[in-house]
Design goal:
Elements (H helix, E strand, L loop, with lengths): L1 H34 L12 H5 L2 E7 L5 E7 L4 E4 L2 E4 L6 E3 L2 E7 L8 H10 L5 H43 L4
Parallel strand pairs: 1-6
Antiparallel strand pairs: 1-2, 3-4, 5-6
Length: about 180
Amino acid sequence: MLEEKKEVPQEEDSVKSLLKKLIEISDKSNLKDKDKKTKLPLKATLWPWNLKQGYATVCYINENKNIDLIKVPIEDSTLVVKELFHEASAKFIMTYRNKPFIILPSWSTKPFSPEENLSEAETKKQTTIGQRYIFNKMKIDALIAAKKKISGSTIVIGLIVIGVIGYFLTSGGFL
């Protein structure tokens, strides 16, 4: 009987020590994940002298669904990627960290356009634009209802406090 009691506390200690080790390991791994930042490869990074020369970072989507990130000069609203000419007008140029960025499928002469994609999604009714307004309206309605409850209760509490103070002043205080 005594031997069984001795074994149980040892098991509990080992479980506690294992839990402590797991917590320490998870804390260390969480700290490491927060420090990492996404960076473009060097061949696609735009430096200040590249920006002055009119370069843009291009996300080139190959036919086999692989992606190449490269920097390409924009000349006369055109891009030359792998000896093929592609359009590069202002409506196709997006920004990534305040630098020009273009998404370019290899099978099309026109790059991805956010404007065209948005209008297409609106016609098919596949957008999430209205959801933000609906959520904000719901939050505002909840705040207004809470304010009404608070204002009604504060008036009642204020009247009670004024009544108590008035009673004590007219009756001569706490005594």
